[in-house]
Amino acid sequence: MSNSPVLELQALAGDPSSDIVAVLLKAKMIAVKLNLNDLSEWLEYEIEGYPTGNDIPKYRVGRGIVKAFNPYHGWFPVDFSNVSPDFIESASEFRITESISSMKKGESKDGMLRITMPPKMVNLLFGSHDIHPEVCWFFSANKLNHIVTTVRNKILTWSLELEKQGIMGDGLLFTQKEKDAAPMTITNNNTNNFHAPVNNAGAIGAGNSGDINQQNSISVGDIASLERELKSHGLDDNDVAELKQLVEQSPKPASKEEVEKGFGAWIGKMTGKAFTGALKVAGTAAPAVLTNAICCYFGIPV
């Protein structure tokens, strides 16, 4: 299988000296061909940058030293002595939305980098005056290295999960069987440290490992208990409604294998969200957590 794009991706991602952009582009090619839309979106954001500072993976969030610029004395720390701890915590939090390629330029002689604070935040600090000093978050340049390493590790973990599931590809092609299996596979690999992305092949950025034995609160045939369990893992109303519709329209499964087959596409989709850090369960754990929850609802042993 020397012509496998998945093995090629493993070699790239596993080599610390390889270009992270090359790793992302190879991963994007595989994700698109396997119709993994959530994962493709995350990879695109890492390549091009994130459109806002709100919905980004936790590994791109940090805390810095807030400093304002004085034209006569240079940069000085902002005095937070008269504000609440909660405000200090909020004001010191920054988000890095730039493309991962731009992080190659994040060099600093003193080992520190800075991000300019947006005007709305500056107004909260200094009031709505006409003139404000420039205010920035100062943070260690190692944060950028952490982001690159996290993304690389998530992609490597995902590619290993693909191989484990027998999804290898041949040149630039994947079989229909591999495409059908891919969603649940990727649904295995996320803290948001794209979710990351691949601390879970399916949850890029999700922060915890997920407890696959959490479904004790689900009563057989009680859809409300299943909904509560799923929402506790961060699924939103639309996700739950989609599953509820599947439950109503699909034949009742009699085994765990039938659950995986009948609900695999939905599980894969949710795992993709976990991969991006949108859920409260890691991508690596999401497939088992979700499958077990559905099994418990149908009274199937797990």
Automatic annotation (TrEMBL):
Annotated AbiTii domain residues: 6-184
Top-level taxonomic group: Bacteria
Name used for this protein in its record: Abortive phage resistance protein
Source species of the chain: Mixta tenebrionis
Lineage: Bacteria, Pseudomonadati, Pseudomonadota, Gammaproteobacteria, Enterobacterales
